[in-house]
């Protein structure tokens, strides 16, 4: 029952956050996004997954992973730490885009992107540490699930390809 309420709360938070993210990034236009300050169009391959879809993908993967792991009460602190780190990484991505878009000069945008990349590296390392701590408290059956799917939320956030067979 508690998990259902947690999932429902997470869904409500996403429903509230998606419009906010849309307001920050603006509407998508037929696969071509506009550059910062409405400048020249960005290349379509520069942003393969819009921010709102990425948040939905990560939330879905996390929800499915939690459900499939069938976590025991003693494992929940490790799960919560992992989930929190993944959420922080998602927030770091959004903040980096927002800060780069508000910069007014090329060098300021470059600095904002570099700062964001450094922050994301730290956040990725935090996710990795939390994921390893979670893995350490899983049963052998749960590890089989985790071996296939624990890295998927992080892969989505770092735009790394993960083989379809592992999904």
What would you say this structure looks like, in words?
With 167 residues, this protein is mainly alpha-helical. It has one domain (2-39, 46-166). Helix content is 70%, strand content 0%. The protein has six helices and no strands. Helix 1 runs antiparallel to helix 2 (51-69), helix 2 packs antiparallel against helix 3 (76-102) and helix 2 (51-69) packs antiparallel against helix 5. The chain is elongated. The model is unreliable at 12-47 and 160-167 (pLDDT under 50).
Shape descriptor: elongated
Low-confidence stretches: 12-47, 160-167
Helix content range: over 70%
Mean pLDDT level: 75
Tally of separate domains: 1
Features:
6 helices; 167 residues; elongated; 0% strand
Draw up the topology in text.
Layout: H1 2-25, H2 51-69, H3 76-102, H4 106-136, H5 140-149, H6 152-157
Helix pairs in contact: 1-2, 2-3, 2-5, 3-4
Write a short abstract of this structure.
This protein has 167 residues and is mostly helical. It has helices at residues 2-25, 51-69, 76-102, 106-136, 140-149, 152-157.
